[in-house]
Amino acid sequence: MNGERQADLHAYIDGELDAERRMAFEAFLASNPAVAARLHDYLHQREILRHGFARTAGDPPQHTESLTGRLYGRLRMERVVRRFGPLVAAVLLLVGGANIAALVHHQQKTASYAVPEFAEEAAEMHATAVSQSLAFSDLSPADLKAMAEGLPHRLGAITVNLPALDPNLLTLVRATLVPLSSGVGLQFVYRERDGEMLTLLVVAEDPIDDRGLYAVEQRGLQLVYWRNGATAYTLAGSRSDGDLLVVAKKMADSVRRS
Amino acid sequence: MTFSLRSQLSDHVRTLRRYAMTLVRNRDDAEDLVQETLVRAIAGARTYRPEANLRSWLFGILHNVHVSDLRRDQVRTRAAASIEPLVRSDVAPNQPDQVELARTMEAFARLPEDQRRALMLVAVDGLSYQEAAGILGIPLGTLMSRLARGREALRADVRGDLRGDEGRGDDGRPAPLRVVK
Description:
The structure holds 2 protein chains of 2 kinds.
Chain A: H1 3-13, H2 19-30, H3 33-57, H4 62-95, H5 97-113, H6 117-131, H7 141-150, E1 170-179, E2 184-192, E3 197-204, E4 214-218, E5 221-228, E6 231-237, H8 241-257
Antiparallel strand pairs in A: 1-2, 2-3, 3-6, 4-5, 5-6
Chain B: H1 2-24, H2 27-43, H3 54-67, H4 69-81, H5 96-110, H6 113-124, H7 129-136, H8 140-166
Helix pairs in contact in B: 1-2, 1-3, 1-6, 2-3, 5-8, 6-7, 6-8, 7-8
């Protein structure tokens, strides 16, 4: 088989031949059983590979699904902004400067009540952590503690204080570095005495002078977040809002004291 | 339109996961690679132009992640320790079809990386030559020759393996010679 015929054989398998060349190649195949046998081998090989990879890859883990969902949300938002952004800008120009100023003020006000991205991500981390509770490592408490103490250095050149907690009330079951939309965060998963799981997500943020504790509901979970200098903390759990606030308050106090 | 975006994205992530396995040959590393790709895609969603090819954009990010120094070193270390045969743990080895499946996947894992990538994109995921060549950053002719060489090497490897078995006993050792009158 010459080079051109060989190229046609592969292009035929991959659907890259136009109708005319496909018919010509089929005529060639009819009179060349050896090439037809090779074609059959390659097609069979392709089926086996597709079957094998379908089995091997399996269903995506929840974290991959969750990231896919978030990417979908971002891309959809970008599409909307690109499609309607210029139109909105034109309308605003027509309506007039005073109204624009009012709108900007309204957006700023709204933004201050919006759930920060790090808190949204904490909700997602918590949902994933709870769903994967069987996959938690069986590291000893001492190993986990050492890991937790070593992790803050991974957030960069900022000082990260971690809450000191009563180990009789909360048991650390996981300490890990996690990828976020922008950068990385530290995820700590605790188990309460009644088996309830809590997730603490610690991220580096621009320093803000804000000592408030904010309680919000996101994805059916309760979240409490607060800031301490250049670090933001979010405690996520499924407990009632008040209970979570109590634990978060103890954590925030501990962080600010240290 | 938005429904179409969602289903497109799911299809592309499935393709990314399979392709990641051809790059790192280890399921956990492949999943890490895809997750890091998605994280970077989320962070860089503003750079995506709707008229551009979404799959090519995602593959571009995946390649960048893969070739980053940190990941390359990690993967090299793990791969040097043990390259996980692709479906060994998933396949019952005692049925003829399963034997062929396992051997094909193992032979695929032994192919040179450039041939594995070409075969994965075109033969397994069904990308056009144009798109696959664009993702791999190679000319069309190079892609076609990698495909041809990969297919033939895989065929020869699997046939050799399967033929090798014809002279073996049930325990996998060579069958004893018999005197033929």
